[in-house]
Amino acid sequence: MKPRFKPHTDDKHQQGGEIHILAEECLSLGSMVHYLADTYFGSVVKNEVLRMFLKNEAISERYANALLAIENIAGAYYYQGRLADALALWQSGEQLLHFEEVREAERVGFLLKYADFLVDHYFLTNQQERLMRTIVQQAREEAIAGEDEQSIATAIYQISRMLYYCNLNTGSSDYTETRSYMRQALERYERIDDKHGIAQSLFFIGLTYERHKEEEQARGYYRQALDIGREYDDKWVIAETTRHLAGLNLGKDNDTSLRYALESLRRREEAGFKRALPSAHLLASRVYQERDEMELASEHAQRAQELAEEMELRSSLMSVLLTQGEIQQKQGNADAARASFEKAAALAEELGLAYGIAAAKANLAHVKAS
User: Fold this and answer.
1) Lowest mean pLDDT, pick from 30-34, 61-65, 179-183, 195-199
2) What is the phi/psi pair of residue 24, to 5°?
3) In angstroms, rounded to a whole number, what is the distance separating the alpha carbons of residues 114 and 48?
4) How far apart are CA 194 and CA 240, in angstroms?
5) CA 25, 29, 32 angle in degrees (round to 5)?
C-alpha cells in the first residue's frame, strides 16, 4: 500500500537540517493513525505475528490436521465409488509429506492408508500398478524405520494384499507368497492384540486357501475372522467373511448361502460402502439363481448394473454382464446370453483383467456346448 503523504527534501524546503512538510500534503493526526493501522497493524504486522506464532510444533499440528482431513475425505470418496476424486486427493496429500515439519507418525500413517487405497484401486481398475508398488514399498520402509509394531504389521498386510490382487488380475494361481506375508502380519497383530488386524489377516489367509481350492481350510479361517468380527461389531470383517462363506455354501446349502449373502449386503449398506454394493447384489443374484428364483436374481443384477453405471465402475459392469448372461442362459435365451458374455469378454480384454477374461471364455464355451 502506498503512503498518503511523503516528505519533501529538496533544498528550498530544507533548512538547518530539518525537513519541512508542505502544508497541503500534511496529514491530520487521524489520517496518520489510519495509515499506520493499515500498514503497521495491517498485512505487514499480521504476517509477522503469524510467523512468530507458528512455531514448528504448531506447523506440524496443522499438517497433521490437513493430512487427517485428506484421509477422511478421500476415504469417503472411495466408499462412494468416486475413485478418480479419491485418487486425486490422495496424490495431493502426498505432496505435503515432503515438508520437514510433517511428523514421522503422520507421514507413515498417511502412506499406509494411501497404500490401502491404491491396492483397492488397482484391483478395481487394473491401473496405477507402478504407483501402488512404489507407495506400498515406501510405507514399509518408513514403518520399519519408525519401529512402530502396528505400522510394520499393517505395512506387511498391505504387501500381502498387493500380491494377492496382482495374482488375481494377472491370472497367477500361486498364492503361497501372499499367504506367507499375511501370516507375518497376523503374528505381529497378535503381539499387540489388534483385533481388527487379526480378523482381517485371518480373512485374507482364508482367501488364499479358497484360491487354491482348499475349501475347508478357507472355511476355518473365515469362521475365526467372523467370530472376532461379530464380537467387536466389525462391519467390514463381517461383510467380507459372510460374503465368502456364502460363496463356499453356494450349490451345497443354498439357504445358508442366501443368509450369508444377504447379511453381507446389509452390512455393506449399513457401513455406507456404496462402492462394494454392486458385487454384493451380484452375489445375491447368483444365490437366487441357484434357488431358481429368477425374478429376484434379475432384480439384484439390475440393481448392481444401476450402481456400477452410476459410479462408472467398469470392472463391476463386466461382472454384471457375466451374471446377466448366466440368468439369460438359465432362462433359455442362448442368443442374449452369448451377447452378454461377448460384451463381458471385450470389456475384460480392454481392462486387462485375467479373471474376467477366463470367466467370459468359460461361459461362452458353455453356451456353445449347450
Assistant:
1) 30-34
2) -70, -15
3) 36
4) 18
5) 70
